[in-house]
């Protein structure tokens, strides 16, 4: 089985070679992103996205957290370009089966639904990448979190790469030092790291992602010492050794409400994921930010918005288009288009 982690040295080498090959990762300099980009050509786009997200979250509240997570997993891999949404083809292995995504990412059908609604109003105008970032913002708002204006104008990528995702996306096992170094490579600060980790204010996590914390933290054969005993007891019952790794548990105590309870839980050593609890338990710099957010929701909301804007600005100079179907590039061979449509039909 492939390892889900890699050394900081490997990450630095990968980023250097990747950026040398593809151009420089920037924050908004390649594509002229701006607020109100579609005001003149599809003024109803943002309202359509929000109403479609509202319906999806009424059917299943968890879909909001799932859609928001898609933005994170898209932005870090070759910039924010909708590459994550592409299905595999006979000639391309995409990102959906990458280590951090397989059996984990979900609600792609919600983006399909939003895209279909926008296409009916404005065919061929709004990119899948822009739909995704709007839907992620609306997921936060509809869960009780902050609202903000999203910069738009992205093009959709023509390809995706499982290898690129494997080499970039962090593991749930990651510690604070690794995460700080990773975010630094994208010009994201420690404050950005902790604020954006607060996205786990909503949603669920799999037993697969925490079983090592419960029974063999760092190869010790013992549980993570940074875990409240009563909380660990509950997780032991939810996630028994050799149990079903796809069983899910709450990422914080209020998994459908976007608030600062996540940070309160970290202070009580009740973080679900190792990559969450480490922010309070393993580094004084991130601990200070966790403490601040646990008592100041307004500060968390403000910094979260700033971090989300920075994520959305990550771009790489590469060819793009406005996809008609978020799962497949335009003018793809008929068999690939058919596979994407069949996938959509089965999931919905």
Automatic annotation (TrEMBL):
Residue numbers binding Ca(2+) 2: 252, 254, 259
InterPro entries in UniProt: Haem_peroxidase, Haem_peroxidase_sf, Peroxidase_pln, Peroxidases_AS, Peroxidases_heam-ligand_BS, Secretory_peroxidase
Cystine crosslinks: 42-122, 128-326, 207-239
Active site positions, chain numbering: 73
Catalytic reactions of this protein: 2 a phenolic donor + H2O2 = 2 a phenolic radical donor + 2 H2O
Nucleotide-binding recorded as keyword: no
Residues annotated as site: Transition state stabilizer: 69
CC terms in the record's Gene Ontology section: extracellular region
Enzyme kind, highest EC tier: oxidoreductase
PROSITE patterns: PEROXIDASE_1 (PS00435), PEROXIDASE_2 (PS00436), PEROXIDASE_4 (PS50873)
Domain spans labelled Plant heme peroxidase family profile: 32-330
Cofactor: heme b; Ca(2+)
Residues annotated to bind substrate: 170
Signal peptide (residue range): 1-26
The family this protein is said to belong to: Belongs to the peroxidase family. Classical plant (class III) peroxidase subfamily.
Function text: Removal of H(2)O(2), oxidation of toxic reductants, biosynthesis and degradation of lignin, suberization, auxin catabolism, response to environmental stresses such as wounding, pathogen attack and oxidative stress.
Protein name: Peroxidase
Species of origin: Dendrobium chrysotoxum (Orchid)
Organism lineage: Eukaryota, Viridiplantae, Streptophyta, Embryophyta, Tracheophyta
